């Protein structure tokens, strides 16, 4: 009578295959959640820029240098950092400011904020949404 204990090679291969399939399913879901988190970070940083723009305008009575002020550049740097990787477009004039960033969950979607309090996500490119000297457009 054979009294050896252990697993056969077939049993081990079946277990490894099951683990690989489960890992693949988890990886797809985790990537989706990571991109949703990046989008939330981008939208949060643009909301911070919107708030900072009101403070800047209150102090300076224009938006001329707002795009180079710390209230803009710090949140912008957070959005363009390697781990987020968004592309940001901004326009600052004496009377208006507009800022637009690319999102991660849906390719081509952008999120735009401006001095009127506008905050919206659409599929329009940032270059179109923030024209020179104007507020966000759809």
Cα separation of the termini = 79 Å
Strand content: 5-15%
Class based on secondary structure composition and strand pairing: alpha+beta
Give me the count of strands.
4
Indicate the multimeric state.
single chain
How would you sum up the global shape?
rod-shaped
* Domain count: 1
Radius of gyration: 24 Å
The number of helical runs is 3
Largest sheet: 4 strands, antiparallel
Question: If strands are numbered along the chain, what order do they take across the biggest sheet?
Answer: 1-2-3-4
Please tell me the overall pLDDT: 90
Enumerate the spans where pLDDT stays under 50 for 5 or more consecutive residues: none
* Proportion of helical residues: 40-55%
Helix/strand order, N-terminal first? HHEEEEH
Break the fold down into its secondary structure elements and pairings.
Layout: H1 9-60, H2 70-80, E1 88-92, E2 97-102, E3 110-114, E4 119-122, H3 126-129
Antiparallel strand pairs: 1-2, 2-3, 3-4
Structure explained in plain terms:
There is one protein chain. The protein is an alpha+beta fold and 138 residues long. The chain has one domain. Helices cover 49% and strands 14% of the residues. The chain has three helices and four strands. Strands 1-2-3-4 form a four-stranded antiparallel sheet. A hairpin with a 4-residue loop joins strand 1 and strand 2. It is rod-shaped, with a radius of gyration of 24 Å. The model has no long low-confidence stretch (mean pLDDT 90).
């Amino acid at each position: 009578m054979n009294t050896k204990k252990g697993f056969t090679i077939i049993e081990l291969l079946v277990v490894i295959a099951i683990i690989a399939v489960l890992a693949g399913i988890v990886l797809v879901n985790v990537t989706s959640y990571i991109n949703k988190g990046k989008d939330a970070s981008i939208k949060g940083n643009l909301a911070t820029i919107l708030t900072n723009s009101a403070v800047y305008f209150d102090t300076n009575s224009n938006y001329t240098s707002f795009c180079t002020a710390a209230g803009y550049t710090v949140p912008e740097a957070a959005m363009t950092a390697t781990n987020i990787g968004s592309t940001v477009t901004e326009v600052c004039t004496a009377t208006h400011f507009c800022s637009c960033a690319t999102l991660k969950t849906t390719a081509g979607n952008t999120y735009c904020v401006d001095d009127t309090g506008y905050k919206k996500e659409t599929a329009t490119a940032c270059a179109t949404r923030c024209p020179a000297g104007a507020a966000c457009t759809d």
